[in-house]
């Protein structure tokens, strides 16, 4: 039976739709405290298989199981990412992207190219893709994402018994707002008040 050798994190973060995500350290995933509540969503078996794909570089996976495990891994990575970016290390990672304008600039003339931050409109996944928040005008915008050079295989995976085994069915071009959370910009500027721009009069 053929197997797939795969570095999930490297490939996941290389996708254009995930360009706003930061790399979550393996040790953050292996601390079970950071997975509290996610077991209830994915289930123990699905979570452990997804976790194995994330933290084990070049993990060999049976080919017919691969797609479903990969989708669960994307879901798991995103939910843990939302928790990681509220830690001191995660905030520093996001700050580096913010000061480099990796999240884009506000297009309003009156905002003078103000850097933006990602925000979710829902904390529950699969509801809405990520938006961009301008801290100067306090408006929320739909980000533009370049299309992938090649279409990804979007076939839904099956588990070894032939049943669907993926909790997360989202198009490859979709970056979920829940992977950042509804309160991230406010928390970010609470930690880095010197980065908050002056409000418009």
From TrEMBL:
<dbReference type="InterPro" id="IPR016149">
    <property type="entry name" value="Casein_kin_II_reg-sub_N"/>
</dbReference>
<protein>
    <recommendedName>
        <fullName>Casein kinase II subunit beta</fullName>
    </recommendedName>
</protein>
<comment type="similarity">
    <text>Belongs to the casein kinase 2 subunit beta family.</text>
</comment>
<dbReference type="InterPro" id="IPR000704">
    <property type="entry name" value="Casein_kinase_II_reg-sub"/>
</dbReference>
<dbReference type="GO" id="GO:0019887">
    <property type="term" value="F:protein kinase regulator activity"/>
</dbReference>
<dbReference type="GO" id="GO:0005956">
    <property type="term" value="C:protein kinase CK2 complex"/>
</dbReference>
<dbReference type="Pfam" id="PF01214">
    <property type="entry name" value="CK_II_beta"/>
</dbReference>
<dbReference type="InterPro" id="IPR035991">
    <property type="entry name" value="Casein_kinase_II_beta-like"/>
</dbReference>
<dbReference type="GO" id="GO:0005737">
    <property type="term" value="C:cytoplasm"/>
</dbReference>
<comment type="subunit">
    <text>Tetramer of two alpha and two beta subunits.</text>
</comment>
